[in-house]
Write a structure and sequence with these properties.
single chain, 281 residues, alpha+beta, D-amino Acid Aminotransferase, Chain A, domain 1, D-amino Acid Aminotransferase, Chain A, domain 2, nine-stranded mixed β-sheet, six-stranded antiparallel β-sheet, globular, binds N-(5'-phosphopyridoxyl)-D-alanine, amino-acid biosynthesis, L-isoleucine-2-oxoglutarate transaminase activity, Aminotrans_IV, Class-IV_PLP-Dep_Aminotrnsfr, EC 2.6.1.42
Length: 281
């Protein structure tokens, strides 16, 4: 695999960053993940816009124009000869002697890009089976709308899920509502066949897949209710699913070991997954 690091393409095993990179020491960095279908970046503009927003919230300058970045991303994909996969991009504030406050002398942001392959056949088999999720108390900071690499609570939650034999963890806030998954947004299909997902506020990441799917749902003539739901409501729902660049639309068949609806993937999630993928291709 070929990685891009600060202006250079090189074999990934030779790609390194500085030990005083502020992303490494302080999680002072943001990232984006694009799904790659047939060599094409899915929802490219949406992810660019969110990247620009994350950077501006942290007051890190955009390392290059959107146009230039598009070319670099395309080149990274081309050099890896990967048609279906994920593109990861990370921008940190840069390298400076350790100090919590920003460097007083301007530093150049550090940018890294990697590309990995996804087996689309295996992904469809997984989607046909559905996944289990666990719930865990929300313990992240108040700015989950910024896509930072400060992912320790997410990593711990995902590990907890894996140890419980599940695939994703849903954070639950102090009011008992699901906020989102460790690396995805959470949805249900309620008793009336309406789609329900939490409104996009500072407590969740404004998923690009979520955003595009709202469009897909409207075109499919389905109704959406942007309101949070509890784990109990998910269990009582007809269907549940998650969305994200890594998972697309993935049915959830159990929450904390309790079956959702009939305990099998339902028609709505399957249809939305198909429509989303058709649009990405
Ligand atoms: N995760 N919520 C969280 C906390 C996420 O980390 C992600 C994405 C999403 C879905 O966002 P989008 O639809 O824009 O991918 C929601 C990426 C895929 C990751 O961390 O690998």
């Amino acid at each position: 695999r070929i990685a891009y690091v600060n202006g250079r393409f090189l074999p990934q095993r030779e790609a390194t960053v500085h030990i005083e990179d502020r992303g490494y020491q302080l999680a002072d960095a943001v990232y984006e993940v694009w799904a790659l279908f047939d060599g094409k970046l899915t929802d490219a503009e949406g992810h660019f816009t969110r990247l620009e927003r994350s950077l501006s919230e942290l007051r890190i300058p955009m390392p290059m124009s959107r146009r230039a970045l598009t070319l670099v991303l395309r080149e990274a994909v081309r050099r890896n000869r990967i048609r279906d996969g994920l593109v990861y991009l990370q921008v940190s504030r840069g390298v400076a002697p350790r100090d919590h406050a920003f460097p007083t002398q301007p530093v150049a942001p550090a940018m890294v890009i990697t590309v990995s392959a996804v087996d689309r056949v295996a992904a469809e088999i997984r989607a046909a089976k559905g996944i289990g999720v666990i719930t865990t108390p929300e313990n992240r900071w108040g700015r989950c709308d910024i896509k930072t690499v400060g992912l320790l609570p997410n990593a711990l939650a995902k590990q907890k899920a894996r140890e419980a034999g599940a695939t994703e963890a849903w954070f639950v806030d102090e009011l008992g509502f699901v906020t989102e998954g460790a690396s995805s947004n959470a949805w249900i299909v309620d008793g009336e066949g309406r789609l329900r997902t939490r409104d996009a506020n500072a407590n969740i990441l404004r998923g690009i897949t979520r955003h595009t799917l709202l469009d897909v749902i409207a075109q499919a003539g389905l109704e959406v209710d942007e309101r949070p739901f509890t784990p109990d409501e998910a269990v009582a729902a007809q269907e549940a699913f998650i969305t994200g660049a890594g998972t697309l639309v993935l049915p959830v068949i159990a929450v904390d070991g309790r079956p959702v609806g009939k305990g099998a993937p339902g028609p709505v999630a399957a249809r939305l997954r198909r429509l989303y993928i058709e649009r990405a291709r």
